[in-house]
Write a structure and sequence with these properties.
This protein is 27% helix and 25% strand. It is built from seven helices and eight strands, in the order E-E-E-H-E-H-H-E-H-E-H-H-E-H-E. The chain has helices at 54-62, 82-96, 98-101, 115-125, 177-182, 190-196, 223-235, and strands spanning 6-17, 20-29, 36-42, 66-70, 103-113, 147-151, 209-214, 239-244.
Length: 245
């Protein structure tokens, strides 16, 4: 779809939590003849540096979707499950505003890289879980998603140190992204880790999940995607795993 047929709204407030405005950028074709699927892009950045992108939203809109790029509370502002609550609120907001933006509320997909991939996958596997739902608003609408694209997201935190590359970090360190996300060293918080792992919630009702991962990724090792893929296959969830050399 040509760029001149794409409408963009930036810095749209989808929730206010603790006095903090949570915003998204949304792009949508103006020549749709019927409601379109929406794609929510969750930025990566170790749950710490999250920058939404109107250009990303526009790119999805040019492919015929309603494109959305969001921000969520980062781990220096509020630890897990705050970021998950925000992402689920954004999905509910989209359903609440489906008519305005010509969204098909039965077709909302989510995608992300790294920490964004973790959150996208968690939205896919944890549909209906009360602990992760949050109180961000629009309680009459579902936060379930119908498709997930996960680019190298962490899925099983306590196994992320299982093998190391020269550029790997120690994920058990108190200053690792995962430890900061959970508010303390992950080895000391096994029960909280379980609640944060997308792999925990997998069941046969989960939506299709596509996974892509680089074999020499030193930050999030590829076993995170291997473990996810195996668990999805075992549960009978539709999935595809692309290994990148």
């Amino acid at each position: 779809i040509p760029r001149n047929h794409i409408r963009v709204e930036k810095d749209v407030v989808y929730a206010v939590v603790g006095g903090r405005k949570l915003m998204l950028d949304i792009a949508y074709p103006d020549n749709l003849t019927e409601p379109a699927p929406a794609i929510v892009d969750i930025p990566g950045g170790a749950w710490r540096t999250v920058r939404k992108s109107a250009e990303d939203a526009i790119w999805y809109a040019q492919q015929g979707f309603v494109g959305v790029s969001i921000i969520h509370r980062t781990s220096d502002i509020a630890v897990f499950p705050a970021a998950v609550h925000d992402c689920k609120t954004a999905v509910r907001w989209l359903r609440a505003n489906a008519e305005k933006f010509n969204i098909n509320p039965d077709e909302i997909g989510v995608t992300g890289f790294s920490s964004g991939g973790h959150l996208a996958t968690l939205l896919g596997t944890s549909g209906g879980d009360r602990y992760l739902e949050g109180e961000g608003g629009y309680p009459g609408f579902s936060s379930r998603v119908q498709a997930v694209v996960d680019h190298f997201g962490p899925t099983d935190f306590l196994k992320i140190n299982d093998f190391r590359f020269a550029d790997s970090i120690d994920h058990f360190d108190a200053q690792s992204p995962e430890s900061l996300f959970l508010g303390g060293p992950i080895k000391d918080r096994p029960e909280l880790v379980k609640l944060a792992n997308p792999i925990t919630y997998i069941d046969p009702k989960d939506p299709p999940i596509w996974i892509g991962h680089g074999e020499k990724d030193g930050m999030v090792i590829i076993n995170q995607s291997e473990l996810l893929y195996d668990a999805l296959k075992k549960a009978g969830v539709e999935t595809e795993f692309v290994r990148v050399e």
